[in-house]
TrEMBL record:
<dbReference type="GO" id="GO:0009279">
    <property type="term" value="C:cell outer membrane"/>
</dbReference>
<dbReference type="Pfam" id="PF00691">
    <property type="entry name" value="OmpA"/>
</dbReference>
<protein>
    <submittedName>
        <fullName>Outer membrane porin F</fullName>
    </submittedName>
</protein>
<dbReference type="GO" id="GO:0005509">
    <property type="term" value="F:calcium ion binding"/>
</dbReference>
<dbReference type="Pfam" id="PF02412">
    <property type="entry name" value="TSP_3"/>
</dbReference>
<feature type="region of interest" description="Disordered">
    <location>
        <begin position="263"/>
        <end position="289"/>
    </location>
</feature>
<keyword id="KW-0998">Cell outer membrane</keyword>
<feature type="compositionally biased region" description="Basic and acidic residues">
    <location>
        <begin position="274"/>
        <end position="289"/>
    </location>
</feature>
<dbReference type="InterPro" id="IPR028974">
    <property type="entry name" value="TSP_type-3_rpt"/>
</dbReference>
<dbReference type="InterPro" id="IPR003367">
    <property type="entry name" value="Thrombospondin_3-like_rpt"/>
</dbReference>
<dbReference type="InterPro" id="IPR036737">
    <property type="entry name" value="OmpA-like_sf"/>
</dbReference>
<keyword id="KW-0732">Signal</keyword>
<dbReference type="InterPro" id="IPR006665">
    <property type="entry name" value="OmpA-like"/>
</dbReference>
<dbReference type="InterPro" id="IPR050330">
    <property type="entry name" value="Bact_OuterMem_StrucFunc"/>
</dbReference>
<keyword id="KW-0472">Membrane</keyword>
<dbReference type="InterPro" id="IPR006664">
    <property type="entry name" value="OMP_bac"/>
</dbReference>
<feature type="signal peptide">
    <location>
        <begin position="1"/>
        <end position="24"/>
    </location>
</feature>
Length: 289
Protein backbone atom coordinates (compact mmCIF):
# COMPACT_ATOMS: atom_id res chain seq x y z
CA UNK A 1 0.00 0.00 0.00
CA UNK A 2 1.32 3.43 -0.83
CA UNK A 3 2.64 5.74 1.90
CA UNK A 4 0.02 8.42 1.20
CA UNK A 5 -2.84 5.95 1.31
CA UNK A 6 -1.63 4.45 4.59
CA UNK A 7 -1.18 7.89 6.18
CA UNK A 8 -4.58 9.06 5.11
CA UNK A 9 -6.29 5.93 6.40
CA UNK A 10 -4.60 6.26 9.79
CA UNK A 11 -5.36 9.97 9.85
CA UNK A 12 -8.99 9.39 8.95
CA UNK A 13 -9.43 6.85 11.71
CA UNK A 14 -7.87 9.15 14.23
CA UNK A 15 -9.96 12.11 13.03
CA UNK A 16 -13.12 10.10 13.63
CA UNK A 17 -11.93 9.21 17.11
CA UNK A 18 -10.90 12.77 17.94
CA UNK A 19 -14.23 14.14 16.71
CA UNK A 20 -16.01 11.75 19.04
CA UNK A 21 -13.90 12.85 21.99
CA UNK A 22 -14.46 16.49 21.18
CA UNK A 23 -18.21 16.00 20.81
CA UNK A 24 -18.36 14.12 24.09
CA UNK A 25 -16.25 16.78 25.79
CA UNK A 26 -18.55 19.51 24.54
CA UNK A 27 -21.58 17.73 25.95
CA UNK A 28 -19.82 17.12 29.24
CA UNK A 29 -18.91 20.81 29.47
CA UNK A 30 -22.56 21.72 29.33
CA UNK A 31 -23.45 19.25 32.07
CA UNK A 32 -20.46 19.30 34.42
CA UNK A 33 -19.63 22.05 36.85
CA UNK A 34 -15.85 21.73 36.43
CA UNK A 35 -13.28 20.29 34.01
CA UNK A 36 -12.22 17.73 36.66
CA UNK A 37 -15.54 15.92 36.10
CA UNK A 38 -14.63 15.01 32.51
CA UNK A 39 -13.26 11.63 31.30
CA UNK A 40 -9.50 11.29 30.84
CA UNK A 41 -9.74 11.06 27.07
CA UNK A 42 -11.62 14.36 26.95
CA UNK A 43 -8.75 16.28 28.50
CA UNK A 44 -7.27 18.95 26.18
CA UNK A 45 -3.78 17.42 26.59
CA UNK A 46 -4.96 14.01 25.42
CA UNK A 47 -6.87 15.55 22.52
CA UNK A 48 -3.83 17.63 21.66
CA UNK A 49 -1.67 14.47 21.57
CA UNK A 50 -4.18 12.72 19.35
CA UNK A 51 -4.41 15.78 17.13
CA UNK A 52 -0.64 15.81 16.84
CA UNK A 53 -0.60 12.20 15.66
CA UNK A 54 -3.37 12.93 13.19
CA UNK A 55 -1.72 16.06 11.87
CA UNK A 56 1.64 14.37 11.65
CA UNK A 57 0.14 11.44 9.76
CA UNK A 58 -1.62 13.65 7.29
CA UNK A 59 1.45 15.88 6.91
CA UNK A 60 3.65 12.86 6.29
CA UNK A 61 1.20 11.32 3.85
CA UNK A 62 0.79 14.43 1.79
CA UNK A 63 4.47 15.36 1.65
CA UNK A 64 6.90 14.51 -1.09
CA UNK A 65 9.85 12.25 -0.35
CA UNK A 66 12.14 15.24 0.07
CA UNK A 67 10.16 17.03 2.81
CA UNK A 68 8.50 14.19 4.72
CA UNK A 69 10.01 15.25 8.04
CA UNK A 70 9.07 18.92 7.80
CA UNK A 71 5.60 18.03 6.57
CA UNK A 72 5.05 15.63 9.43
CA UNK A 73 6.34 18.18 11.97
CA UNK A 74 4.13 20.97 10.62
CA UNK A 75 1.10 18.69 10.54
CA UNK A 76 1.78 17.45 14.06
CA UNK A 77 2.01 21.01 15.44
CA UNK A 78 -1.17 22.14 13.70
CA UNK A 79 -3.03 18.96 14.69
CA UNK A 80 -2.01 19.28 18.36
CA UNK A 81 -3.28 22.86 18.48
CA UNK A 82 -6.58 21.97 16.82
CA UNK A 83 -7.06 18.90 19.02
CA UNK A 84 -6.51 20.92 22.18
CA UNK A 85 -9.00 23.54 21.08
CA UNK A 86 -11.63 20.94 20.16
CA UNK A 87 -11.53 19.45 23.66
CA UNK A 88 -11.09 22.70 25.55
CA UNK A 89 -13.27 23.09 28.61
CA UNK A 90 -16.23 25.24 27.64
CA UNK A 91 -17.95 25.08 30.97
CA UNK A 92 -19.38 28.60 31.50
CA UNK A 93 -17.92 30.52 34.42
CA UNK A 94 -20.35 30.69 37.34
CA UNK A 95 -22.19 34.00 37.35
CA UNK A 96 -21.95 35.86 40.64
CA UNK A 97 -25.28 36.97 42.10
CA UNK A 98 -26.07 40.44 40.87
CA UNK A 99 -27.23 41.66 44.27
CA UNK A 100 -25.46 39.36 46.77
CA UNK A 101 -26.01 41.56 49.81
CA UNK A 102 -29.78 41.22 49.63
CA UNK A 103 -29.99 37.43 49.72
CA UNK A 104 -33.09 35.83 48.28
CA UNK A 105 -35.46 38.53 47.08
CA UNK A 106 -39.19 37.76 47.41
CA UNK A 107 -41.30 37.70 44.27
CA UNK A 108 -43.01 40.96 43.39
CA UNK A 109 -40.43 43.22 45.06
CA UNK A 110 -39.77 46.42 43.11
CA UNK A 111 -36.30 46.41 41.57
CA UNK A 112 -34.05 48.89 39.80
CA UNK A 113 -32.62 48.72 36.28
CA UNK A 114 -29.95 46.24 37.43
CA UNK A 115 -32.49 43.91 39.01
CA UNK A 116 -31.65 44.86 42.59
CA UNK A 117 -34.35 45.68 45.15
CA UNK A 118 -35.03 49.39 45.47
CA UNK A 119 -33.29 51.23 48.32
CA UNK A 120 -34.87 54.67 48.12
CA UNK A 121 -32.93 56.26 50.98
CA UNK A 122 -29.61 54.61 50.05
CA UNK A 123 -28.94 53.25 53.55
CA UNK A 124 -28.08 49.74 52.35
CA UNK A 125 -31.38 48.20 53.50
CA UNK A 126 -33.85 47.55 50.64
CA UNK A 127 -37.26 49.19 50.82
CA UNK A 128 -39.11 45.92 51.35
CA UNK A 129 -37.16 45.37 54.61
CA UNK A 130 -36.69 49.01 55.66
CA UNK A 131 -38.68 49.86 58.80
CA UNK A 132 -37.44 53.46 58.75
CA UNK A 133 -37.73 54.73 55.16
CA UNK A 134 -36.42 58.20 54.42
CA UNK A 135 -33.29 58.02 56.58
CA UNK A 136 -31.04 61.02 55.77
CA UNK A 137 -28.01 60.31 53.62
CA UNK A 138 -24.93 59.15 55.51
CA UNK A 139 -26.74 58.16 58.71
CA UNK A 140 -25.63 54.78 60.06
CA UNK A 141 -28.50 52.32 60.41
CA UNK A 142 -29.18 48.89 61.90
CA UNK A 143 -30.36 45.76 60.07
CA UNK A 144 -33.92 47.12 59.97
CA UNK A 145 -32.85 50.34 58.26
CA UNK A 146 -33.39 52.49 61.36
CA UNK A 147 -30.83 55.03 62.64
CA UNK A 148 -28.62 53.79 65.47
CA UNK A 149 -29.60 54.78 69.01
CA UNK A 150 -26.58 53.72 71.08
CA UNK A 151 -27.99 54.70 74.48
CA UNK A 152 -31.54 53.49 73.67
CA UNK A 153 -33.15 56.72 74.86
CA UNK A 154 -35.45 57.01 71.85
CA UNK A 155 -33.42 59.78 70.19
CA UNK A 156 -31.21 58.45 67.35
CA UNK A 157 -27.49 59.16 67.53
CA UNK A 158 -27.47 61.61 64.64
CA UNK A 159 -29.88 63.87 66.58
CA UNK A 160 -28.74 63.14 70.13
CA UNK A 161 -26.95 66.00 71.89
CA UNK A 162 -26.34 63.69 74.88
CA UNK A 163 -25.35 60.35 73.30
CA UNK A 164 -24.39 58.54 76.53
CA UNK A 165 -27.49 58.95 78.67
CA UNK A 166 -27.73 56.21 81.35
CA UNK A 167 -30.33 53.52 80.75
CA UNK A 168 -33.83 54.33 81.95
CA UNK A 169 -33.30 58.10 82.26
CA UNK A 170 -36.08 60.16 80.70
CA UNK A 171 -34.82 62.61 78.08
CA UNK A 172 -36.14 65.55 76.10
CA UNK A 173 -36.22 65.94 72.32
CA UNK A 174 -32.50 66.72 72.35
CA UNK A 175 -31.77 63.34 73.94
CA UNK A 176 -30.74 65.01 77.22
CA UNK A 177 -32.16 64.59 80.73
CA UNK A 178 -31.93 68.35 81.27
CA UNK A 179 -30.10 71.30 79.83
CA UNK A 180 -26.66 70.32 78.58
CA UNK A 181 -23.50 72.34 79.14
CA UNK A 182 -21.71 72.85 75.84
CA UNK A 183 -18.29 71.67 76.92
CA UNK A 184 -15.31 73.51 75.41
CA UNK A 185 -17.48 76.27 73.98
CA UNK A 186 -15.28 79.14 75.19
CA UNK A 187 -14.68 82.74 74.22
CA UNK A 188 -11.80 85.11 73.88
CA UNK A 189 -10.99 86.92 77.13
CA UNK A 190 -13.68 89.38 78.20
CA UNK A 191 -15.52 89.14 74.88
CA UNK A 192 -18.21 87.23 72.99
CA UNK A 193 -15.77 86.09 70.28
CA UNK A 194 -15.84 82.30 69.95
CA UNK A 195 -12.51 80.47 69.96
CA UNK A 196 -11.70 78.24 66.98
CA UNK A 197 -12.07 75.17 69.22
CA UNK A 198 -15.53 76.36 70.28
CA UNK A 199 -16.54 76.67 66.62
CA UNK A 200 -15.40 73.11 66.01
CA UNK A 201 -17.58 71.86 68.88
CA UNK A 202 -20.57 73.86 67.65
CA UNK A 203 -20.26 72.33 64.18
CA UNK A 204 -21.35 69.01 65.66
CA UNK A 205 -24.15 70.65 67.65
CA UNK A 206 -25.42 72.37 64.52
CA UNK A 207 -25.31 69.16 62.50
CA UNK A 208 -27.54 67.37 65.01
CA UNK A 209 -29.92 70.32 65.26
CA UNK A 210 -30.26 70.52 61.48
CA UNK A 211 -31.14 66.82 61.53
CA UNK A 212 -33.75 67.48 64.23
CA UNK A 213 -35.83 70.19 62.52
CA UNK A 214 -38.89 70.01 64.79
CA UNK A 215 -36.97 70.97 67.94
CA UNK A 216 -36.52 74.53 69.21
CA UNK A 217 -33.66 75.32 71.56
CA UNK A 218 -32.78 77.81 74.23
CA UNK A 219 -29.15 78.95 74.32
CA UNK A 220 -28.29 80.21 77.78
CA UNK A 221 -25.17 82.18 78.72
CA UNK A 222 -23.70 82.31 82.25
CA UNK A 223 -20.75 84.08 83.88
CA UNK A 224 -18.90 84.02 87.18
CA UNK A 225 -19.40 86.74 89.79
CA UNK A 226 -16.47 88.97 88.91
CA UNK A 227 -17.60 92.31 87.57
CA UNK A 228 -20.89 94.11 88.05
CA UNK A 229 -24.23 92.35 87.71
CA UNK A 230 -25.19 94.48 84.72
CA UNK A 231 -21.90 93.91 82.95
CA UNK A 232 -22.12 90.14 83.48
CA UNK A 233 -25.71 90.07 82.30
CA UNK A 234 -24.83 91.87 79.09
CA UNK A 235 -21.74 89.74 78.47
CA UNK A 236 -23.66 86.50 78.98
CA UNK A 237 -26.39 87.70 76.59
CA UNK A 238 -23.81 88.58 73.93
CA UNK A 239 -22.12 85.21 74.31
CA UNK A 240 -25.40 83.32 74.04
CA UNK A 241 -26.28 85.35 70.94
CA UNK A 242 -22.84 84.68 69.48
CA UNK A 243 -23.49 80.94 69.76
CA UNK A 244 -26.93 81.33 68.18
CA UNK A 245 -25.46 83.35 65.32
CA UNK A 246 -22.82 80.72 64.68
CA UNK A 247 -25.36 77.90 64.68
CA UNK A 248 -27.50 79.89 62.24
CA UNK A 249 -24.47 80.22 59.96
CA UNK A 250 -24.28 76.40 60.00
CA UNK A 251 -27.87 75.96 58.84
CA UNK A 252 -30.00 76.07 62.00
CA UNK A 253 -33.03 78.31 61.43
CA UNK A 254 -32.89 81.45 63.57
CA UNK A 255 -36.56 81.15 64.53
CA UNK A 256 -35.80 77.82 66.21
CA UNK A 257 -33.40 79.44 68.69
CA UNK A 258 -33.55 81.96 71.47
CA UNK A 259 -30.53 83.44 73.25
CA UNK A 260 -30.79 84.27 76.95
CA UNK A 261 -28.12 85.76 79.22
CA UNK A 262 -28.38 85.02 82.94
CA UNK A 263 -25.11 86.62 84.00
CA UNK A 264 -24.06 85.43 87.45
CA UNK A 265 -27.60 84.55 88.58
CA UNK A 266 -27.35 80.76 88.25
CA UNK A 267 -23.98 79.52 89.51
CA UNK A 268 -23.30 75.77 89.54
CA UNK A 269 -20.18 76.04 91.71
CA UNK A 270 -18.55 78.38 94.21
CA UNK A 271 -17.22 81.67 92.87
CA UNK A 272 -14.58 81.61 95.62
CA UNK A 273 -12.24 79.34 93.63
CA UNK A 274 -10.81 79.52 90.14
CA UNK A 275 -12.20 76.07 89.37
CA UNK A 276 -15.65 77.12 90.53
CA UNK A 277 -15.57 80.33 88.49
CA UNK A 278 -14.50 78.31 85.44
CA UNK A 279 -17.54 76.04 85.83
CA UNK A 280 -19.83 79.03 86.16
CA UNK A 281 -18.60 80.54 82.89
CA UNK A 282 -20.60 78.33 80.57
CA UNK A 283 -23.16 78.09 77.77
CA UNK A 284 -26.05 75.67 78.11
CA UNK A 285 -28.41 74.19 75.53
CA UNK A 286 -31.95 73.28 76.46
CA UNK A 287 -35.21 72.45 74.74
CA UNK A 288 -37.36 75.52 74.15
CA UNK A 289 -41.03 74.65 74.50
Amino acid sequence: MKKSTTGLLIGSALVVGLSGCASSASQSSGQASASSDRSWYQHPAVCGLAGGVIGGSIGYATSSSSDEESGAATGAAAGAAIGGLLCADRTPEPVAPQCPSYGEVPAGVAVDAEGCPLDSDGDGVPDYRDQCPGTPAGVEVNANGCPLDSDNDGVPDYRDQCPNTPAGVEVNALGCPDSVVLEDVNFEFDSAQLTSNAQSVLNGVAERLVSNPDVRVSIEGHTDSRGSDEYNKNLSQERAQSVANYLASRGVEANRMRAVGYGEERPVASNETEEGRFQNRRVELDEWN
